[in-house]
Amino acid sequence: MKILYGVQGTGNGHITRARALSTAFARMPSVNVDFIFSGRQRDKYFDMEPFAQWRNYSGLTFIHKSGKIDPIATIKQNQFRQLFKDIKTLNLSDYDLVLTDFEPVSAWAAKRAKKPILGVGHQYAFHYDIPKQGANPATELIMKNFAPVNLGLGLHWHHFGHPILPPIADIPENDYDVEKSNILVYLGFEDPEKVMQTLAPIKSHEFIFYGEFDSPQTKGNIHLKPLSREGFKIDLAKANGVICNAGFELVSEALELGKKVLVKPLKGQMEQLSNAKALENLGIGKSMSTLNTETIERWLTEQPNVKILYPDVAKAIANWIVEGDWNEKTRHDLAVELWQQVESPDMNNFAHIEKLKKRL
């Protein structure tokens, strides 16, 4: 089976999922996967070795400034003429299947060529009735048409009674001792100076702050570190908690590692606002609408650590894809099978397996 896998490159979570699925597919000698990425300039990607001869397209992206979406800059930045050209010229004749993680070039090219296309990603969970914040007809339209698929495998921290799968949590294999005073900070959508001003008064903890810094620096109890996948994974494993924007993948990894979580959603971004709401509703994390020292201090002292163990979702998805029986029933069966393997502090309240079975 030859697969073209399109990955949205605007967030590192999409790429993390692709790495996990790439590893699963690599164990299958009958499968050959080519990767395309879009939404980011090629020189802005890092640690891309698992994807071999990957290709890059401009695609579509959202421009943010000071923690919120800038709609005017977003329209100006996106190259719609180039997008249509890339969709039209992408040759899919050699592929048996197109797989997309909310990547528009591969999705629309497959739709145009009438190729089978499956979606894997958090965004496909929003096709169901799940906790949402900031949703409106425009956001619903974007979710359904940004990267359309024949069948989507949505991922979330809970199935909410629908055939949604658990997260693909790509956590470190090595065991590290947790430093209870260490807090990992990754707020890529925020002004770094404002982040440091917010953290500086909190002397009780050490903050490991990852961002687009030229070199490591230490400013009191705030340790600045340049982006590095391996270094980030190690510091995540050692940290007692995580402060981040409300993206899906990092929070999933933090929950599996048993870290306390505090998110600051990107303003105007329905997905992140909804993630923050889901965390609060499920009681597995806290959120703040603005960077606030008092909120962080209260979270540090009051929020318990939550640990949720997920099965190998990437392996299960890869097996399901290779089996070739892609329909709503087998997707439902896959969802039930995976949620039955989830280990959480309170399975009766968290998984609702029987409720899920009745809905299928």
Task: Walk me through the structure.
By secondary structure, the protein is an alpha/beta fold. It has helices at 12-26, 71-77, 80-89, 104-113, 137-145, 192-199, 229-238, 248-256, 270-282, 293-302, 313-323, 328-339, 347-350, 353-359; strands at residues 2-8, 32-38, 55-57, 64-65, 68-69, 97-101, 117-121, 151-154, 182-186, 206-211, 217-219, 222-226, 241-244, 260-263, 286-287. The chain has 2 domains: 2-168 and 311-359, Glycogen Phosphorylase B (Rossmann fold, 3-Layer(aba) Sandwich), CATH 3.40.50.2000; 182-302, Glycogen Phosphorylase B (Rossmann fold, 3-Layer(aba) Sandwich). The chain is 38% helix and 18% strand. The protein has a 7-stranded mixed beta sheet with strand order 11-12-10-9-13-14-15, sandwiched between helices. Strands 3-2-1-6-7-8 form a 6-stranded parallel beta sheet, with helices on both faces. It is globular. Residues 72-76 and 347-351 have low confidence and may be disordered. InterPro entries: MJ1255-like (IPR005262). It comes from Sessilibacter corallicola.
Relevant CATH superfamily of the largest domain = Glycogen Phosphorylase B
Nearest-angstrom radius of gyration?
20 Å
One letter per element, helices H and strands E, the order comes to EHEEEEHHEHEHEEHEEEHEHEHEHHHHH
Q: Describe the biggest sheet? A: 7 strands, mixed
Strand content: 15-25%
Mean of all residue-level pLDDT scores: 89
Protein name: Glycosyltransferase family protein
Organism: Sessilibacter corallicola
